[in-house]
Design goal:
Number of helices: 8
Oligomer: single chain
Radius of gyration: 19 Å
Order of helices and strands: HHHHHHHH
Shape: flat
């Protein structure tokens, strides 16, 4: 239950972060050439919000129930292993032989970390897999945002994805049975959430 509460706090954190950054949207709104922005770009922005904020961080917090902090931090740091080939395929970025070798070695490390126990037995634990899916979703988010930032402005797109992503977490929160008792939170807890959000 504490992990479900944790990703409720995550949604609150992203909502606060999005609200805090909204002034930048208004400041830089006029600097965007909106003539070249159509509904497809807004749809892509919404998809980035769902993939990179809503889905990725719900899976991230669900994964924490069955994985160590060390393994979790290691898997999160593998994001470039997925971003590099996606950037090569979707954004036509260059990738040399050293980069390919690095991805292969990193992929081997992921397989060992996710599927092999300390005593060298094969396992199938859902938590590392959920975290890996979260990393992959965030990688797609990164690629999508790089494209959108080239069309719009990062100071416009980033606050909007944080804000939309937090809002889209609300339906999932209401479906789950564990409430977030904000009335019981101390000033120190609220201070921590504000610190993380801002």
């Amino acid at each position: 239950a504490r992990y479900k509460t944790a990703w409720r706090l995550s949604s609150l954190r992203f909502f606060i972060g999005g609200i805090f950054l909204l002034p930048f949207v208004f400041i830089y709104w006029k600097k965007v050439d909106w003539k070249g922005i159509g509904w497809k770009h807004w749809l892509m922005l919404l998809c980035c919000s769902i993939l990179g904020i809503t889905a990725a961080f719900i899976l991230f917090h669900e994964a924490l129930t069955g994985i160590s902090a060390t393994a979790g931090a290691t898997l999160i740091s593998t994001t470039p292993l997925f971003i590099a080939p996606l950037a090569f395929l979707l954004l036509k970025e260059k990738m040399g032989y050293i980069g390919i070798l690095g991805i292969l070695v990193g992929a081997l490390g992921i397989v060992l970390l996710v599927f092999v126990e300390d005593h060298h037995e094969i396992r199938l634990n859902s938590s590392p897999i959920l975290l890996l899916i979260s990393v992959i979703l965030f990688s797609f988010y990164t690629i999508g945002m790089k494209y959108l930032n080239g069309k719009m402005n990062a100071r416009v797109t980033t606050p909007l994805t944080l804000f939309f992503g937090a809002i889209l977490m609300l339906p999932v929160i209401f479906v789950k049975e564990v409430p977030l008792h904000t009335e019981k939170m101390t000033l120190a807890a609220w201070g921590g959430i504000l610190y993380l959000g801002i």
